[in-house]
Write a sequence for this structure.
């Protein structure tokens, strides 16, 4: 019974570099979410997938952020030309549907120097 | 933007005492959830209460919901050191993504 896993757990990037963050949801979970959590704050919604379809990307801060889930399972969040303000913990969550609890991964802590 | 607001921001209690934290939100909801986050870890779901429910229990946790006041409370009874964590309320906004507050940091002293 594996939970949601994310990799890497920690990532340090120089400003301007591209990064890719991976999320492996719980098998069979239709819904997948990405959240961004700044220090001392609650998570903020970034984007939502139902299977392979990205149904909501309204929370992505800029066009430097891109997410995909091509086969309806693993998802990747890509950030191009990273900036210092991108430093945060990126959380992935999955759930079997909507209006139910979400299961969170441990997060990837991104530090942009 | 975050819909929920937890109160207090921080809480320090002695082991064995009860801890109560409150959450207020702005728009109508289908359900409200509470999550716990230990330092440096992901969030763990604690309890979900639907908009037509007023109170719910799970072990040492009791959650109330008052939709007329747009508020909820989480009570942890007989606290333990392992309850030291940040606690977040989250509302479904609209019915899939979660909108979190800034959280209440609870410290349980031995």
């Amino acid at each position: 019974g594996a939970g949601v896993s994310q990799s890497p757990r920690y990532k340090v990037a120089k400003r301007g570099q591209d990064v890719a963050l991976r999320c492996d949801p719980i098998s069979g979970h239709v819904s997948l979410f990405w959240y961004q959590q700044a220090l001392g704050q609650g998570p903020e919604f970034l984007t939502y997938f139902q299977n392979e379809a990205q149904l909501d990307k309204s929370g992505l801060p800029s066009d430097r952020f891109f997410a995909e889930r091509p086969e309806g399972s693993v998802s990747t969040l890509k950030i191009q030309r990273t900036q210092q303000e991108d430093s945060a913990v990126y959380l992935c969550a999955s759930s079997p549907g909507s209006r139910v609890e979400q299961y969170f991964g441990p997060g990837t802590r991104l530090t942009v120097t | 933007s975050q819909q929920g607001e937890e109160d207090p921001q921080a809480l320090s209690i002695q082991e064995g005492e009860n801890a109560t934290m409150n959450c207020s939100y702005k728009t109508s909801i289908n359900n409200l959830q509470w999550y716990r986050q230990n330092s440096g870890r992901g969030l763990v779901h604690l309890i979900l209460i639907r908009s037509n429910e007023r109170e719910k229990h799970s072990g040492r946790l009791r959650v109330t919901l008052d939709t007329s006041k747009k508020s909820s409370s989480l009570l942890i009874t007989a606290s333990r050191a392992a309850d030291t964590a940040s606690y977040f309320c989250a509302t479904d906004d609209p019915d899939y993504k979660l909108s979190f507050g800034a959280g209440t940091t609870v410290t349980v002293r031995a």
Observations:
- Residues 30 and 108 of chain B are 32 Å apart (CA to CA).
- Chain B touches chain A through 25 residues (CB under 8 Å).
